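User: Please predict the structure of the protein below. I'd like the answer in C-alpha coordinate form so I can feed it into my own downstream comparison script.

Assistant: Understood. Taking the following sequence of 250 residues as input:
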Amino acid sequence: MDNVSLSASGTAGPGLRRVRPNQSTTHRLRVIPWQGNRRVALVGPGRNARPPTTADLIACVRQLDRRGVTRIVTPALERSDSQPFIDAGFSLLERLHLLSRPLEDSPPEPSRRIHAGQAWHRSRVLQIDKLAFESFWQFDATALKEARTATPTSRFRVVMERRRPIGYAVTGKAGGHGYLQRLAVHPEAQGAGIGTDLVNDSLLWLHKKGAKLVMVNTQERNQRALALYQHLGFQPEPEGLVVLERIRPS
Protein backbone atom coordinates (compact mmCIF):
# COMPACT_ATOMS: atom_id res chain seq x y z
CA MET A 1 0.00 0.00 0.00
CA ASP A 2 3.00 2.35 0.11
CA ASN A 3 2.88 3.00 -3.64
CA VAL A 4 -0.17 5.27 -3.56
CA SER A 5 -1.82 7.38 -0.89
CA LEU A 6 -5.32 8.71 -1.52
CA SER A 7 -6.71 11.54 0.56
CA ALA A 8 -10.40 12.42 0.59
CA SER A 9 -11.43 15.97 1.46
CA GLY A 10 -14.75 16.75 3.10
CA THR A 11 -17.24 14.37 4.66
CA ALA A 12 -20.02 14.28 2.07
CA GLY A 13 -20.33 10.52 1.96
CA PRO A 14 -18.25 7.86 0.24
CA GLY A 15 -16.41 8.37 -2.99
CA LEU A 16 -13.48 10.29 -4.37
CA ARG A 17 -13.24 13.97 -3.54
CA ARG A 18 -9.55 14.74 -4.03
CA VAL A 19 -6.45 12.63 -4.49
CA ARG A 20 -2.98 13.49 -3.27
CA PRO A 21 -0.15 11.07 -4.16
CA ASN A 22 2.56 10.62 -1.55
CA GLN A 23 6.26 11.05 -2.28
CA SER A 24 6.83 7.40 -3.23
CA THR A 25 4.55 7.59 -6.29
CA THR A 26 6.89 10.10 -8.01
CA HIS A 27 3.71 11.23 -9.79
CA ARG A 28 3.40 7.96 -11.72
CA LEU A 29 -0.38 8.00 -11.27
CA ARG A 30 -2.93 10.73 -11.78
CA VAL A 31 -6.32 10.19 -10.12
CA ILE A 32 -9.31 12.54 -10.30
CA PRO A 33 -13.10 12.22 -10.14
CA TRP A 34 -14.64 11.61 -13.57
CA GLN A 35 -17.14 14.26 -14.69
CA GLY A 36 -17.72 15.33 -11.10
CA ASN A 37 -18.94 11.87 -10.06
CA ARG A 38 -17.22 10.87 -6.80
CA ARG A 39 -17.94 7.18 -7.44
CA VAL A 40 -16.16 7.16 -10.82
CA ALA A 41 -12.42 7.83 -10.99
CA LEU A 42 -10.15 8.66 -13.90
CA VAL A 43 -6.80 6.92 -13.35
CA GLY A 44 -3.96 7.43 -15.78
CA PRO A 45 -0.20 7.83 -16.02
CA GLY A 46 1.24 10.81 -14.21
CA ARG A 47 2.97 13.70 -15.88
CA ASN A 48 6.55 12.52 -15.53
CA ALA A 49 8.47 10.02 -17.62
CA ARG A 50 8.02 7.03 -15.29
CA PRO A 51 5.00 4.90 -16.20
CA PRO A 52 2.92 3.28 -13.44
CA THR A 53 3.58 -0.35 -12.61
CA THR A 54 0.99 -3.07 -12.14
CA ALA A 55 1.72 -2.91 -8.40
CA ASP A 56 1.01 0.83 -8.37
CA LEU A 57 -2.32 0.25 -10.07
CA ILE A 58 -3.39 -2.66 -7.86
CA ALA A 59 -2.67 -0.56 -4.76
CA CYS A 60 -4.60 2.37 -6.22
CA VAL A 61 -7.59 0.18 -7.13
CA ARG A 62 -7.75 -1.28 -3.63
CA GLN A 63 -7.80 2.14 -2.04
CA LEU A 64 -10.41 3.43 -4.47
CA ASP A 65 -12.53 0.37 -3.67
CA ARG A 66 -12.33 1.26 0.02
CA ARG A 67 -13.36 4.81 -0.77
CA GLY A 68 -16.55 3.55 -2.41
CA VAL A 69 -15.50 4.17 -6.02
CA THR A 70 -17.48 1.75 -8.20
CA ARG A 71 -15.93 2.39 -11.61
CA ILE A 72 -12.47 3.40 -12.84
CA VAL A 73 -11.74 4.59 -16.37
CA THR A 74 -8.48 5.52 -18.05
CA PRO A 75 -7.59 8.30 -20.47
CA ALA A 76 -6.65 7.31 -24.01
CA LEU A 77 -3.60 5.05 -23.76
CA GLU A 78 -1.08 3.79 -26.25
CA ARG A 79 -1.04 0.01 -26.46
CA SER A 80 2.40 -0.14 -24.81
CA ASP A 81 1.11 1.87 -21.82
CA SER A 82 -2.05 -0.21 -21.41
CA GLN A 83 -0.49 -3.53 -20.38
CA PRO A 84 0.03 -2.70 -16.67
CA PHE A 85 -3.63 -1.65 -16.48
CA ILE A 86 -4.76 -4.89 -18.11
CA ASP A 87 -2.57 -6.87 -15.71
CA ALA A 88 -4.25 -4.99 -12.84
CA GLY A 89 -7.73 -6.10 -13.95
CA PHE A 90 -8.80 -3.39 -16.42
CA SER A 91 -10.64 -4.34 -19.62
CA LEU A 92 -11.26 -2.67 -22.97
CA LEU A 93 -13.93 0.04 -23.07
CA GLU A 94 -13.29 1.66 -26.45
CA ARG A 95 -10.74 1.90 -29.26
CA LEU A 96 -9.73 5.26 -30.75
CA HIS A 97 -8.15 6.35 -33.99
CA LEU A 98 -4.82 8.12 -33.54
CA LEU A 99 -3.95 10.42 -36.43
CA SER A 100 -0.94 12.57 -37.22
CA ARG A 101 -0.09 15.35 -39.64
CA PRO A 102 3.35 16.79 -40.45
CA LEU A 103 3.62 20.57 -40.41
CA GLU A 104 6.17 21.04 -43.16
CA ASP A 105 4.27 23.86 -44.91
CA SER A 106 2.22 26.71 -43.53
CA PRO A 107 -1.48 25.71 -43.25
CA PRO A 108 -4.19 27.91 -44.86
CA GLU A 109 -5.70 30.82 -42.99
CA PRO A 110 -9.20 30.28 -41.54
CA SER A 111 -11.99 31.71 -43.66
CA ARG A 112 -13.70 33.36 -40.67
CA ARG A 113 -12.54 35.22 -37.60
CA ILE A 114 -11.42 33.08 -34.70
CA HIS A 115 -11.67 34.68 -31.25
CA ALA A 116 -9.52 34.14 -28.17
CA GLY A 117 -11.43 32.08 -25.62
CA GLN A 118 -12.38 34.00 -22.48
CA ALA A 119 -13.46 32.93 -19.00
CA TRP A 120 -17.06 33.94 -19.72
CA HIS A 121 -17.12 31.59 -22.73
CA ARG A 122 -16.64 28.52 -20.54
CA SER A 123 -20.26 27.78 -19.65
CA ARG A 124 -21.34 28.14 -23.27
CA VAL A 125 -18.60 25.91 -24.69
CA LEU A 126 -19.43 23.26 -22.10
CA GLN A 127 -23.03 23.36 -23.31
CA ILE A 128 -21.77 22.86 -26.88
CA ASP A 129 -19.60 20.00 -25.69
CA LYS A 130 -22.56 18.20 -24.15
CA LEU A 131 -24.52 18.52 -27.40
CA ALA A 132 -21.61 17.41 -29.58
CA PHE A 133 -20.43 14.32 -27.67
CA GLU A 134 -21.82 11.17 -26.10
CA SER A 135 -22.21 11.35 -22.33
CA PHE A 136 -19.00 9.42 -21.55
CA TRP A 137 -16.89 11.84 -23.61
CA GLN A 138 -18.49 15.10 -22.48
CA PHE A 139 -16.30 17.67 -20.76
CA ASP A 140 -17.11 19.28 -17.46
CA ALA A 141 -15.27 22.33 -16.10
CA THR A 142 -12.49 20.18 -14.63
CA ALA A 143 -11.92 18.30 -17.88
CA LEU A 144 -11.79 21.55 -19.84
CA LYS A 145 -9.20 22.92 -17.44
CA GLU A 146 -7.21 19.69 -17.70
CA ALA A 147 -7.19 19.93 -21.50
CA ARG A 148 -5.96 23.51 -21.33
CA THR A 149 -3.16 22.71 -18.88
CA ALA A 150 -2.05 19.30 -20.19
CA THR A 151 0.81 20.81 -22.21
CA PRO A 152 3.32 23.58 -21.43
CA THR A 153 1.74 25.86 -24.05
CA SER A 154 -1.91 25.88 -25.06
CA ARG A 155 -4.47 27.85 -27.05
CA PHE A 156 -8.22 28.23 -26.45
CA ARG A 157 -10.21 29.63 -29.39
CA VAL A 158 -13.90 30.06 -30.24
CA VAL A 159 -16.05 30.88 -33.25
CA MET A 160 -18.79 33.38 -32.43
CA GLU A 161 -22.27 33.91 -33.85
CA ARG A 162 -24.56 36.61 -32.50
CA ARG A 163 -22.00 37.24 -29.75
CA ARG A 164 -22.14 33.63 -28.52
CA PRO A 165 -19.67 30.78 -29.12
CA ILE A 166 -20.91 28.14 -31.57
CA GLY A 167 -17.69 26.13 -31.71
CA TYR A 168 -14.39 25.91 -29.87
CA ALA A 169 -10.97 24.29 -29.95
CA VAL A 170 -8.23 23.63 -27.43
CA THR A 171 -4.75 23.08 -28.82
CA GLY A 172 -1.54 22.22 -26.98
CA LYS A 173 2.17 22.15 -27.76
CA ALA A 174 4.94 20.18 -26.05
CA GLY A 175 8.39 20.20 -27.61
CA GLY A 176 8.10 19.68 -31.34
CA HIS A 177 4.64 18.10 -31.14
CA GLY A 178 1.24 19.72 -31.30
CA TYR A 179 -1.99 18.24 -30.00
CA LEU A 180 -5.59 18.95 -30.96
CA GLN A 181 -6.93 18.46 -27.47
CA ARG A 182 -10.58 19.28 -28.15
CA LEU A 183 -12.81 20.34 -31.00
CA ALA A 184 -16.57 20.80 -30.71
CA VAL A 185 -19.16 22.55 -32.87
CA HIS A 186 -22.81 23.08 -31.98
CA PRO A 187 -24.85 20.45 -33.88
CA GLU A 188 -27.00 23.13 -35.52
CA ALA A 189 -23.86 24.77 -36.95
CA GLN A 190 -22.12 21.62 -38.18
CA GLY A 191 -21.42 21.33 -41.89
CA ALA A 192 -20.69 25.06 -42.33
CA GLY A 193 -16.90 24.77 -42.19
CA ILE A 194 -16.51 25.86 -38.58
CA GLY A 195 -14.57 22.73 -37.62
CA THR A 196 -12.28 23.22 -40.61
CA ASP A 197 -11.58 26.83 -39.61
CA LEU A 198 -10.86 25.88 -36.00
CA VAL A 199 -8.47 23.12 -37.04
CA ASN A 200 -6.69 25.36 -39.55
CA ASP A 201 -6.35 28.06 -36.89
CA SER A 202 -4.80 25.50 -34.56
CA LEU A 203 -2.43 24.20 -37.25
CA LEU A 204 -1.35 27.71 -38.20
CA TRP A 205 -0.60 28.57 -34.56
CA LEU A 206 1.36 25.36 -34.08
CA HIS A 207 3.33 25.97 -37.29
CA LYS A 208 4.28 29.46 -36.09
CA LYS A 209 5.31 27.98 -32.73
CA GLY A 210 7.68 25.54 -34.46
CA ALA A 211 5.75 22.28 -34.07
CA LYS A 212 6.74 19.63 -36.60
CA LEU A 213 3.98 17.07 -36.07
CA VAL A 214 0.37 17.34 -34.88
CA MET A 215 -1.56 14.52 -33.23
CA VAL A 216 -5.28 14.01 -32.66
CA ASN A 217 -7.47 11.11 -31.60
CA THR A 218 -11.13 10.36 -32.14
CA GLN A 219 -13.58 7.51 -31.60
CA GLU A 220 -13.52 4.80 -34.24
CA ARG A 221 -17.24 5.30 -34.85
CA ASN A 222 -17.01 9.10 -35.14
CA GLN A 223 -16.91 9.11 -38.92
CA ARG A 224 -17.63 12.84 -39.22
CA ALA A 225 -14.55 13.78 -37.18
CA LEU A 226 -12.41 11.18 -38.93
CA ALA A 227 -13.41 12.51 -42.36
CA LEU A 228 -12.65 16.09 -41.28
CA TYR A 229 -9.17 15.26 -40.02
CA GLN A 230 -8.29 13.18 -43.05
CA HIS A 231 -9.53 15.95 -45.36
CA LEU A 232 -7.14 18.32 -43.57
CA GLY A 233 -4.11 16.08 -44.07
CA PHE A 234 -4.14 13.79 -41.02
CA GLN A 235 -3.32 10.12 -41.54
CA PRO A 236 -4.11 7.23 -39.17
CA GLU A 237 -1.20 5.83 -37.20
CA PRO A 238 -0.65 2.04 -37.52
CA GLU A 239 -1.80 1.51 -33.93
CA GLY A 240 -4.60 3.46 -32.34
CA LEU A 241 -5.34 4.15 -28.70
CA VAL A 242 -7.46 2.35 -26.13
CA VAL A 243 -9.63 3.43 -23.21
CA LEU A 244 -9.89 0.88 -20.41
CA GLU A 245 -12.19 0.50 -17.43
CA ARG A 246 -12.57 -1.49 -14.24
CA ILE A 247 -15.93 -2.09 -12.61
CA ARG A 248 -15.81 -2.95 -8.91
CA PRO A 249 -17.16 -6.46 -8.39
CA SER A 250 -20.56 -6.46 -6.68
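That's the full C-alpha coordinate string. The two ends are 23 Å apart (CA to CA).
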